[in-house]
Amino acid sequence: MRTVSSALLCAFLVLCAPAVFAQGITTGSLSGTITDQEGAVLPGVIIEAVHQPTGTRYSTVSRSDGRYAILNVRVGGPYTVKANLDGFQPQEKTNIFVDLGEDTVVNFQLSLGAIEETLTVVADANPVIDSTHYGAASNVSSEAIDTLPTVGRGLEDFARLNPNFATTASNDGPTSITVAGRNNRYNSILIDGAVNNDLFGLADSGTPGGQAETQPVSIDAIDSLQLLVSPYDVRQGGFSGGGINAITKSGTNAFKGSVYGYTRDQSFVGDLDGRDIADFSQDQYGLSVGGPISKDKIFFFFNGEISRRDQPTGFSINGSGQQFGHLDEVNTFRNILIDRYGFDPGGLDEQIRGTDSDKYFGRIDFNLSDGQQLRLRHNYVDASNDIIRPNAFTYDFESYTYQFLDKTNSTVAQLNSVFGNFYNEGRLTYQTIRDNRSPINGVRFPYVRVEFSDGTRVEAGSERFSTANALDQDIIEFTDDLTWIHGDHTVTVGTHNEFFKFRNLFIRENFGAYTFNSLENFEAGLADTFAYSFSNTSDPQQAAEFNAYQLGLYAGDQWKVRPELTVYYGLRVDAPFFPDDPTRNPLTEQVFGLRTDTTPDGNLLWSPRIGFNWDIGGTGEQQLRGGIGIFSGKAPYVWLSNQYSNTGIEFTRLSAFGGGIPFVADPDGQPKSIGGASTSEVDLIDPDFKLPQVLRVTLGYDRQLGFWDLIGSAEVIWADTQEDILYQNLNYEQSGTLFDGRKSFTQVDRTFSDAIFLTNTSEGDQLSASIKIERPFRDGLFGFISYAYGDSNSINDGTSSQAVSNWRFLPSIDPNNPEVSPSNFDIAHRFNAALSYRFGARNFPTTVSFFYNAQSGRPFSTTFSNDINGDRQDNDLLYVPASADEVIVTNGTWEDLNNYISADSGLSAARGKIVKRNASRAPWTQQLDFKLAQDVRFGKYAFQITLDILNFWNLIDSDAGRVQYVPFAETSPVRFDGIDAATGKPIYRLNFTDPDRRFSTDDLRSRWQAQLGLRFSF
Question: Which residues lie across from 403 on neighbouring strands?
């Protein structure tokens, strides 16, 4: 598929020349045509645009065809644009606003006559036609940010306004954003043009500090957002999912500020199935202030915000929240830990976890001269998060909690300059991120897990991945874009370069990790599996340290073919470099024929793109737009860091299976050798490995509907995977065939536990189609309704940070050759609607807003609860028997199993076969959010009281708004107990028979939640 689609694209581009948007990444543009009253074009007209709040001035002269363009202008407004030509009456237009990344058209028709008085016209912006709008992208205005409901006050609350952006969360964890069915790790987040991704790839939110559940910047510091799927701007790179492009607020000539606070606690949260929520609180307090340092010349803006949250986990053994059950077994487990080993894992009540965040942002803007501006800003985030997430299948004791600490500093300097018909935008960014993850309260005890007979489990001790875990990142970015306007062409050449320095300390199971298949085994002190990793160097906290660079060049030319038709085409090339080589391990060359010291250095990523915009009929009432191009992203660098950490030289990793392993409670006295145990894990990478790439084809249509200021849009996006990830374990080879036709495996070399090989696949695709009717903000009223359909398929969704986990946690038939299946990020169906209306007296306005979201449940897989194919992993997809005479059922009846299968459409369709990955879905989720804002204004001062209610329907109907999910997108109702010797039939032991047991209920998000806010503005 990759070869065909790439060939078609290249053939298409041969017929064309290169292209790009005229406006900037952090700015917008103004353009138009000047004519006389007879319609003849007027060259030489002096155009001056003034940004009224700051006095920032821009000027140019209309060209021989009467057209003009002013690039890299401030977003927002209002602007006054004036046209002046000797012999004609001067004319100015007011109330003009510029959107982020878009071109605002301001045309003039001048009258003859040397009239001194200037004709002033109030502009009426066209909300539909933008000749630089080619692909799938949308804007979120400051009005939307200010008026729509939000409790989390994060970017994700506003990203969901785009039909292609879906937000998902489970188990009271952080919200992640998936775009057009792609991995959330493939997204890009720019703030003031600076990359704010979680570049290392550990956080579901995709932002620095995401594991601490903090935002990269306060929403009060954000001016506007741009949501990108297929922008076709060759300057837009670094994502094969979607992009969020945000700019921050700046000061103006008016001194303005606000003090605000938001609060909620358990009295503002509803019950769930008659159960009140445990003690809960969230408070946010902040200050924003901005103004002039020197009128029309220098401006400042500052925001500081403090957030404190204490949130219940939603589960307990016999207390508040959802009850896990197994009281007697859990008490026995706890008493053994206390009485025999002197370790108290914590009580049986619901746990409360704390999340703190402090954010400080400052910005200074300089108007150096007309058309030349300098912007400096710094952002600091200090956050901590206590993380423990029990669910319906796993109960975690309090000792299993770990704490994540994050400190992020980000500095950006940007200089915009104009030299005649040349426009330059240069940007330099320096960012430091310091993350640390450790067991809470310094808990020192091996990880212990006991499995119960129904497939549930209990965990205690130090969290297995947090005993030696820290990450330092230093990032430098340099970007420079030079644009030249020449006749019908706007030519841009540019470069974007990122330089990374990583120090990653990660020694998993550094205190030892033991699993017991029964409580009896735990009582006997004999584990079924054991894992322990330790440093072989003189440094017990040995870390992987390496540098990486990603260099990008691009060029393009926007061509105004006709007044109503704009075509652009362009080319971008990115090249990742890894100057540091991992340690060489000669043994892997002998066993697997691959070196550990090779990297995918200098593998070029070519991204040709072409797009068009056609103003049908030239009336500005409807447009057809589209494009085709390749989008190249960054893989999370943790996937590449694995190769530096797991060479088999720096660390020993003991892995023992088979039972009878003595439990050692001393974290410092773990055995460094066990008979028959594997002693090494190696991670290998294909030297030809390429970062993720996708080809996207977009076709969209927008038009004014002619009543109520409504705009209708329809859009289709098809994406074909060019390069994506594929993990294989080279230490397992086929040894036979099982009862259902799948392969069985055996280890190649017992010295190695695993040999994980990262390479590419070109299989996978995504289809997204959406329709939307919208009324832009006008006269206090805003609203939209939309529907989106998605069909996303992949080989491996890359849901983990560790190489072995991305292999082992992929449900499959053949773990080394997985099939294309529905993606974990497939949304299927999604409905959205929003409505906001402001009414009342001028000094006492009231605003009422709603946001509605309904979407298909997340896909999940059904597997056996144990390893059946010999690869020592519990990821084997279930064979679904067609009839009772195919299997022997224990711990239940065939009727129980048959009813379970019939209750799941994915399993029912797979009778007589092995079910596909992600063939099943969780129930639909729907949520209605509400916001009421009351303003009281007196002079230049104002108070605003707000009430936000999330899951408003749950307030009306306690059964509505429930959020259900399958933990880790996998459920295991059956244990394979071998083949019956007499009949040759497989033995299926039922772990549970109630189909509802598949789902956990998100305790907090399934309740209504209210938040009170108070803001004083001056």
Answer: 386, 438
**The pLDDT of residue 7:** 38
CA distance 613 to 412: 33
Residue 869 lies in a domain: no
| CA distances to 474, 529, 661, 736, 766 from 658, in Å | 44, 7, 8, 21, 42
* 113 shares a domain with 81: yes
Hey, is 4 helix, strand or coil?
A: helix
Pick from 524, 417, 434, 512: which is nearest to 470 by CA?
A: 434
Q: Are residues 120 and 188 in the same domain?
A: no
Do residue 202 and residue 298 come from a single domain?
yes
The H or E element containing residue 778 is strand 765-778
User: Which token pair is 385?
Assistant: 């998060």
Do 86 and 145 share a domain, yes or no? no
Give kind and range of the element (H or E) at residue 765.
strand 765-778
Q: What is the C-alpha separation between 834 and 183, in angstroms, rounded?
A: 26
Contacts of 562 (CB under 8 A, 6+ apart): none
Last residue of a domain, one of 808, 824, 840: 824
pLDDT of the residue at 116: 59
Q: What is the pLDDT of residue 277?
A: 87
Written as six digits, the tokens of 772 are 């939307």
For residue 992, report the phi and psi dihedrals to the nearest 5 degrees: -160, 160
Q: Model-level pTM greater than 0.70?
A: yes
SS3 928: strand
Name the domain boundary from 824, 853, 885: 824
User: What number of CA atoms fall less than 13 Å from residue 989's CA on the CB side?
Assistant: 12
Radius of gyration for the alpha carbons in the chain, expressed in angstroms and rounded:
30
DSSP per residue over 528-551, as a string?
SEEEEEEESSS-TT--EEEEEEEE
What confidence score (pLDDT) does residue 950 get?
93
127, 148: one domain: no
Q: What is the DSSP letter of 673?
A: -
Q: Where are the beta strands (DSSP E) in 868-940?
A: 879-880, 888-890, 913-914, 920-921, 925-938
**C-alpha torsion sign, points 75, 81, 85, 88:** positive
Helix (H) or strand (E) holding 335: helix 327-341
Write down the pLDDT at residue 101.
87
Q: Which of 697, 694, 698 has its CA nearest to residue 721?
A: 694
- pLDDT value at residue 127: 62
Domain membership flag for residue 956: no
Q: What is the CATH number of the domain that holds 46?
A: 2.60.40.1120
Taking alpha carbons only, the member of 525, 810, 817 closest to residue 661 is 525
Residues 123 and 144 occupy one common structural domain: no
Residues 339-362 as b or e (16 or more Cβ within 10 Å = b): eebebebbebebbbbebbbbbbbb
Q: What is the distance between the alpha carbons of residues 76 and 370, in angstroms, rounded to a whole number?
A: 18
In the block, tokens 């083949």 appear at: 979
For residue 583 the two structure tokens come to 């340690």
Distance CA(306)–CA(498), nearest Å, equals 31
Q: Which residues of the chain have pLDDT under 70?
A: 1-23, 114-128, 169-174, 204-205
- Residue 311's beta-bridge partner residues? 353
Residue 420 lies in a domain: yes
Distance CA 572, CA 610 (A): 11
Tell me, yes or no, whether 655 lies in a domain: yes
- Count of structural domains, the chain: 2
CA angle 389, 394, 397 (to 5 degrees): 65
Between CA 997 and CA 972 the distance in angstroms is 10
Same domain as 166, residue 124: no
**Full domain range(s) for residue 85:** 23-131
d(CA 929, CA 290): 31
Would you call 197 helix, strand, or coil by DSSP? coil
The predicted pLDDT at position 56 comes to 94
- d(C-alpha 702, C-alpha 4), whole Å: 30
C-alpha to C-alpha distances, 780 to 708, 848, 941, nearest whole angstrom: 13, 10, 20
- Both 114 and 161 in a single domain? no
